[in-house]
Design goal:
67% helix; single chain; alpha+beta; 462 residues; two-stranded parallel sheet; elongated; Outer membrane efflux proteins (OEP); 12 helices; 2 domains
């Protein structure tokens, strides 16, 4: 192998090393992500919100279309004809009236052209009037549906973020438990060499360590899954790496808000607002169908240029202008009971919407009572578990010290370790349950906490 080929291979290895290092640096870089950042990113990238925003734009176009039906219309048309054979009409043969014969008389010209400008303005039409109002209601409905999707997205992101924080905390606790077990095992080994403890104690300490390792691995896997769920809720690619900067701190909901929650739900829930808009829309549909019984009155005007010759040779002097204005009135007298059937169908849809509203109000109140119960229960658990964790930590320290003094057994140490881990898990679970219930509570009330929607710097949103 020549020196040149060796140098070429070395160059390729060096380039490959740089590429691998670059890829590893990109994949290992994690962006800081607070809950506020996550929500702001979701406001931009969540596909459901994008769809709702497009529906708002569509509703605005429908409002413009409805107003267009009430505006004047202008049409221009032109026509050129070449008569291959002129039409005729018949007159009696005046040279011999008694014969009963007729004489064909040709009419028209071989060439003709005309240009017409027509204007039309509807003065009264029930469907047009109702349509403008219905389009505005539809636009408001699209706004309500967007707000509903916005509140829902915020709640989903909050719960996904809390779940990831919980999973991260569980990983931290499991690693801490494993470290405690390993430290205890090292102490047991030391005491075993000194003949202070038995082989059985050493085996129990070893088993305790090995039992915790799979739990640590499982908790790490659960954390990765929770982060994937968070990315999905935000609406970003799975290649985005984030490190969560917030902690599982609780913003307790004021009791006055909880007590007035049922009244707030009826007024502010976006889904209930959307149902009310739907009732308005169905009411407009009823009137739109009834408008078929009403006349349509329209004003029109027409201006026309015409020319006709027997040779294809036109000039501006050949054009003759004419104009007219007028009113048209039209009204359907009978349509095979179709109008009546459409009115009845629209009325049924309206009644269905009203029943949906009653059902939704009932379900909202039932769900609210359940969420309030979860909030209060979780808050009591948070307060109680804080004391339990402190007691378990003190108990573990006491047992560990007693064991080192050969005044306690390995079994007591293991029990204290399990009790401490369980107390920490219970406390963090209680905090998580309260945070999730608060997210559901805010979603039901149709609100987003102000501290979660404040604008961030553009750098945090990239």
């Amino acid at each position: 192998m020549t020196i040149r080929s060796l140098s070429r291979i070395g160059y390729l290895i060096f380039v490959s090393f740089l590429i691998i290092q670059s890829i590893q640096a990109q994949t290992s870089t994690k962006k800081p992500l607070s809950l506020q950042d996550a929500i702001q990113i979701a406001m931009v990238h969540n596909p459901d919100l994008k769809t709702a925003q497009l529906e708002i734009e569509r509703s605005s176009a429908r409002v413009l279309e409805a107003w267009g039906n009430a505006m004047p219309s202008l049409d221009v048309s032109g026509r050129f004809t070449r008569a291959l054979k002129l039409p005729v009409f018949f007159l009696p043969d005046f040279s011999d009236l008694n014969s009963g014969r007729t004489v064909p008389i040709r009419i028209g010209s071989d060439f003709s052209l005309d240009a017409t400008l027509t204007a039309r303005q509807i003065l009264f039409n029930g469907a047009v009037i109702v349509g403008v109002g219905a389009a505005k209601v539809y636009s408001n409905l699209a706004q309500d549906l967007y707000e509903s999707k916005r509140v829902e997205t915020v709640a989903k992101v909050r719960k996904a973020y809390y779940t990831a924080l919980l999973a991260d905390k569980v990983v931290e606790m499991m690693r801490s438990s494993l470290k405690n077990a390993e430290d205890n095992f090292n102490n047991v080994l030391l005491m075993r060499r000194q003949g202070i403890v038995s082989e059985y104690d050493e085996l129990r300490a070893s088993v305790q360590v090995e039992n915790l390792r799979p739990s640590v691995i499982q908790s790490e896997n659960n954390f990765e899954l929770s982060v994937d769920a968070l990315r999905n809720a935000i609406g970003v690619d799975k290649n985005e790496n984030y490190i969560m900067t917030d902690s599982m701190k609780i913003e307790f909901i004021e009791e006055s808000v909880i007590e007035s929650a049922e009244e707030i739900v009826v007024k502010s829930n976006p889904n209930l607002k959307a149902v009310n808009r739907q009732i308005e829309l169905n009411n407009a549909a009823v009137w739109a169908e009834r408008s078929s019984y009403m006349p349509t009155i329209a004003a029109f005007g027409q201006y026309q240029y015409q020319a006709a010759k027997n040779e294809f040779k036109f000039s501006t002097n050949d054009l003759i202008s004419s104009s007219m204005v007028g009113l048209t009135v039209s009204m359907n007298l009978f349509q095979g009971l179709q109008t009546r059937a459409r009115v009845e169908q629209a009325q049924v849809e309206q009644m269905k919407s009203e029943e949906q509203k009653v059902s939704l109000e009932r379900n909202l109140k039932t769900g609210l009572h359940s969420i309030i119960g979860n909030l209060r229960h979780a808050r009591k658990r948070v307060d109680a578990q804080q004391k339990t964790v402190e007691t378990a930590e003190r108990g573990y320290k006491i047992v560990s010290a007693r064991y080192l003094a050969n005044a306690a057994t390995q079994l007591e140490v293991n029990d204290a370790e399990v009790a401490l881990t369980q107390a920490k898990v219970n406390r963090i679970q209680a905090i998580y349950d309260y945070l999730v219930a608060s997210a559901d509570f805010d979603q039901l009330l149709g609100r987003v906490p102000n501290y979660l929607v404040e604008s961030n710097s553009s750098e945090n949103l990239k």
